[in-house]
Amino acid sequence: QVQLVESGGGLVQPGGSLRLSCATSGIIFSMSAMGWYRQAPGKQRELVAVIGTGLSTTDYADSVKGRFTISRDNAKNTVYLQMNSLKPEDTAVYFCNARRIEYDYWGQGTQVTVSS
């Protein structure tokens, strides 16, 4: 059974930090490109960050560059998103994604709310 389970979301003040985790099972994690996406009310789901296999090359949306860091722990089959200097516009449901040519799996999402 394929499972992607996000955790770590919550309410944080502007300028604060959160660390999201996505625990996976049922996939070949080390050979899956992993990503974080987010969707705010009334907006389309957008790519936040992605980390590849092998050398673990990363890429980020322009809006989060310098503030967010994606990482993966292949021993734990888990991908992380460290979010610093959070802004109200970061408020969204954050989704974990696992992708290979053969599949494209999504978690249920975790809510991140940035508000004073």
In short:
The chain has no helices and 11 strands.
What keyword list fits this structure?
single chain, 116 residues, mainly beta, four-stranded antiparallel β-sheet
Explain this structure to me?
The chain is an all-beta fold. 0% of the residues lie in helices and 52% in strands. Strands 2, 4, 5, 6, 9, 10 and 11 form a seven-stranded mixed β-sheet that branches. A hairpin with a 6-residue loop joins β5 (46-51) and β6 (58-60). The mean pLDDT is 97.
SSE blueprint and pairings:
Layout: E1 3-7, E2 10-12, E3 18-25, E4 33-39, E5 46-51, E6 58-60, E7 68-73, E8 78-83, E9 92-99, E10 104-106, E11 110-114
Parallel strand pairs: 2-11
Antiparallel strand pairs: 1-3, 3-8, 4-5, 4-9, 5-6, 7-8, 9-10, 9-11
User: What is the averaged pLDDT score?
Assistant: 97
Helix content: under 10%
User: What can be said about the biggest beta sheet?
Assistant: 7 strands, mixed
Shape: globular
Poorly predicted runs of 5 or more residues: none
Let me know the number of strands.
Answer: 11
Order of helices and strands: EEEEEEEEEEE
Rg over C-alpha atoms, rounded to the nearest angstrom: 13 Å
Distance between the termini: 40 Å
